[in-house]
Amino acid sequence: MTRPAPSSSAAKLPPSLAANPKLSSWIRIAPEGRVVVSPGKVEIGQGIVTALAQIAADELDVEITRVQMVRASTAGSPNEGVTSGSLSVQQSGRAIRQACAEVRQIFLAAAAERLGVGTDVLDIGDGTISGPGNVSTSYWELAGEVSLDRDATPGAVAKSSSQRTLAGHSVPRLDIPDKVFAHPRFIHDSPLPGMLHGRVLRSELSHAALVELKEDGARKVEGLVAIVRDGSFAGVVGQTEVAAELALAALRKGANWSSRETLPDEDGLAEWLKRQPAELSVIASKRASSPLAKTRTIRRQYTRPYIAHGSIAPSCAMAQWNGDRVRVWTHSQGVYLLRTDLALVLKIPVANITVEHMEGAGCYGHNAADDVALDAVLLAKAAPGRPVRVQWSRADEMSHAPFGAAMTIEIEADLDAKDEIVDWRHSLWGNGHTARPGRAELPALLAATELATPFPRAIATNPPQANGGGADRNSVPLYDFPSWQIECHRLTTMPIRTSALRTLGAQGNVFAIESFLDELAAERGEDPVEFRLRHLSDQRAQDVIRAVAKRAKWKPAKRDGAGYGLGFARYKNTGAYCAVIADVEGTEDISVRRLTIAVDVGEAINPDGVINQIEGGAIQATSWVLKERVRFDSTRITSNSWTEYPILRFSEVPEVQVEVMSRPELEPVGAGEAAHGPATAAIANAVFDALGLRVRNLPITRERLIAAMELAS
Amino acid sequence: MPNIRFRLNGAETDIDADPDTSLLAILRSRLGMTGPHFGCGAGECGACNVIVGDHAVTACDTPLWSVANKDVTTIEGLGNAQSPHPLQRAFIAEQALQCGYCVSGILMSAAALLKRNPDPTSSDVKAALDRNLCRCGSHNRMVRAVLRAAAEMRTP
Question: pTM for this structure?
Answer without folding.
Answer: 0.96
